[in-house]
């Protein structure tokens, strides 16, 4: 037993003696790593090494400076081309609204029959912004109404268990395409009728976008009261929008100067105005009837 205990003691001493580390399979050529136990690099050491290496490389600095210059030049070109086709100052004019204007304009769109003065107000030959003139067209209400219409269409489809992202996207794109086609048709009609006015694409887009207000009221009433309520509100909003378009285009938009000229030209202008107004109920019905069941 004494001999066995002594043998075990000597054996323990031999096992406790650390064996020499085996030689590495590959030489460490990183140079920038601070090793931790086990041979692994310290966290973030490789990132710091790469950043320092790039910053210390003159060619990398030149490349970064050249890339920044190209990006800045491209940004300037984009802004320049954008200003060629879209005037930012003119676009700001159509969004110069406040809460009082929005409330009054919505009331005018729903009930325009008692409104008397339809002329756009000017100050030093410059039209007043919408927040100072109720007759001035704006793009804030059409934009917000379009977004609201898309959300309301999604809710209506969800209630009827027909919702899907594809159907909602098709609904939104169809409504937008119809407005673009209407604006292009009005521009072509103004050109063929040789109407001299201050109407721009933004003006026509604003007047065409006001139909979304009637579409929202029609769909919302249809969801609450069924198809009968939908058709009643559809008839009311359509007639109100037609009256609003006729009075706005003949008085506020075209102006008295453009209404002069020969009798055939005046008839063309009248037909163009009536055609634009009569087209509104058809678009409203086409974009809303499938949402109410």
Short précis:
The chain is 69% helix and 1% strand. It is globular, with a radius of gyration of 36 Å.
Succession of helices and strands: HHHHHEEHHHHHH
β-strand percent reads under 5%
Structural class based on helices, strands and sheet pairing = mainly alpha
Low-confidence stretches: 1-19, 32-36, 255-260
Major sheet: order of its strands? 1-2
Radius of gyration: 36 Å
Q: First CA to last CA: what distance?
A: 99 Å
- The number of helices is 11
The overall pLDDT, averaged over residues, is 77
Approximate shape: globular
Query: How much helix, percentage-wise, in residues?
Result: 55-70%
Main sheet?
A: 2 strands, antiparallel
- Record field, number of beta strands: 2
List keywords for this structure.
293 residues, mainly alpha, two-stranded antiparallel ribbon, 11 helices, transport, transmembrane helix
How would you describe this protein?
The chain crosses the membrane at residues 139-161, 167-192, 204-224, 270-288. Has a role in transport between endoplasmic reticulum and Golgi. One of its GO terms (biological process) is endoplasmic reticulum to Golgi vesicle-mediated transport. It comes from Prolemur simus (Greater bamboo lemur). The structure is a single chain. With 293 residues, the chain is mostly helical. The chain is built from eleven helices and two strands, in the order αααααββαααααα. The chain has helices at 2-16, 45-56, 58-85, 88-93, 99-110, 140-159, 165-192, 201-209, 211-253, 255-258, 263-288; strands at 122-123, 126-127. A two-stranded antiparallel ribbon has the order 1-2. Residues 1-19, 32-36 and 255-260 have low confidence and may be disordered.
């Amino acid at each position: 037993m004494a001999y066995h205990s002594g043998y075990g003691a000597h054996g323990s001493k031999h096992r406790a003696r650390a064996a020499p580390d085996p030689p590495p399979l590959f030489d460490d050529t990183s140079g920038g790593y601070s090793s931790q136990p086990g041979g692994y690099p310290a966290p973030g050491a490789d990132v710091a090494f790469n950043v320092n290496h790039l910053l210390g490389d003159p060619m990398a600095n030149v490349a970064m400076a050249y890339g920044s210059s190209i990006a800045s030049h491209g940004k300037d070109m984009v802004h320049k081309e954008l200003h060629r086709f879209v005037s930012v100052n003119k676009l700001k004019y159509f969004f110069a609204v406040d809460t009082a204007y929005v409330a009054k304009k919505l009331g005018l769109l729903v009930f325009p029959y008692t409104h008397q003065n339809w002329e756009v107000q000017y100050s030093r030959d410059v039209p007043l912004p919408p927040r100072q003139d109720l007759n001035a067209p704006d793009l804030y209400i059409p934009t917000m109404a379009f977004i609201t219409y898309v959300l309301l269409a999604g809710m209506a489809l969800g209630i009827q268990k027909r919702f899907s992202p594809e159907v909602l996207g098709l609904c939104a794109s169809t409504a937008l395409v119809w407005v673009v086609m209407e604006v292009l048709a009005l521009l072509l009609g103004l050109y063929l009728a040789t109407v001299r006015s201050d109407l721009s694409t933004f003006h026509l887009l604003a007047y065409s976008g006001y139909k979304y207000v009637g579409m929202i009221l029609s769909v919302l009433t249809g969801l609450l009261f069924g198809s009968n309520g939908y058709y009643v509100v559809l008839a009311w909003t359509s007639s109100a929008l037609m009256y609003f378009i006729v009075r706005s285009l003949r008085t506020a938009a075209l102006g008295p100067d453009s209404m002069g000229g020969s009798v055939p030209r005046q008839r063309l202008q009248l037909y163009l105005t009536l055609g634009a107004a009569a087209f509104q109920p058809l678009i409203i019905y086409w974009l809303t009837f499938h949402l109410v069941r």
